[in-house]
Amino acid sequence: MWETKININEVREIRAKTTVYFGVGAIKKIDDIAREFKEKGYDRIIVITGKGAYKATGAWEYIVPALNKNQITYIHYDQVTPNPTVDQVDEATKQAREFGARAVLAIGGGSPIDAAKSVAVLLSYPDKNARQLYQLEFTPVKAAPIIAINLTHGTGTEADRFAVVSIPEKAYKPAIAYDCIYPLYSIDDPALMVKLPSDQTAYVSVDALNHVVEAATSKVASPYTIILAKETVRLIARYLPQALSHPADLTARYYLLYASLIAGIAFDNGLLHFTHALEHPLSAVKPELAHGLGLGMLLPAVVKQIYPATPEVLAEMLEPIVPDLKGVPGEAEKAASGVAKWLAGAGITMKLKDAGFQAEDIARLTDLAFTTPSLELLLSMAPVTADRERVKAIYQDAF
């Protein structure tokens, strides 16, 4: 039983701080949120989005009337790309400062929400910029209030204290984690996600899957993260095939979104380790690489490495996608191949070489895993020693 792996004498933090409005029709709660923001004096905001999803999903049709009704004026920054950059954050921050924005509203998946969290910090630190923030040159303790309208079922960022933004010239993709960037309110409405393409549906769900594989096996895993992990895997295994076959199925989207939400809460508590620490260099070097796809390429190799240290946890957790695991160290290969088979069923069969990486890139990727700000901390959370040889072995196995 996995319970035997928990040290009951180690004190754990249990985090669940953001108020999330969840369910079909939750987008209508934006009117209540806007009213409250107006009452609190947050009557000038910056809206941060990507280039099209905020409209294509229908979210914009609810947000603009709510802001207008409650006499909230806004400026709109719509240039956030997948794997957002510090330059985008600084550009949005400059516009927000000049406008006098007092709060931030993000509409999108992880990229717009993480960019918005970053802008919220910089609004409270007018002498700082995004490079300083993501090179950990200061520790923020305050940020402008954040509203997150989530448009994907993968990142969990709408309910956690994390954000990720790239520094292109250094090929860094660091993560930050501060209490001040929990969104005050978030909206999770599965009706906004029915137009997600099939590949993105798979990629974001694999992101959520990776969150719990790591959160349930890290050095700070707790019964809370493990229970959340088990339910996340069960829901993804059951509802991802349905969403891929029937994209407009609101029940499937609902439960994939719920899985993503609780996975976000799980890693907010249990942190991350190998797959995220090793994926960030991949999409920093190749920004066009979807984060979830990169994670999927790495996951079987990571499972192979960590399974011997956490077999009881992983056997129970992975049972819906890799049945008949006994929870003994010697079945690491079986677990890894089972995960790879399940990923293939979701359409994820690519290896690093298929994404354009060369064998000689492995040394650089390994260096980036240890030199990118914040990633070495993630590696230190792994259940096995995360030295350069092990990191290199994971990249080679995924190649």
TrEMBL record:
Domain Fe-containing alcohol dehydrogenase-like C-terminal: 201-399
EC numbers, comma separated: 1.1.1.2
GO molecular function, one term: metal ion binding
CC annotations in GO: cytosol
Disulfide bond as UniProt keyword: no
Alphabetic keyword roster: Oxidoreductase
Gene3D superfamilies: 3.40.50.1970, Dehydroquinate synthase-like - alpha domain (1.20.1090.10)
Entry protein name: Long-chain primary alcohol dehydrogenase AdhA
Organism: Neomoorella thermoacetica (Clostridium thermoaceticum)
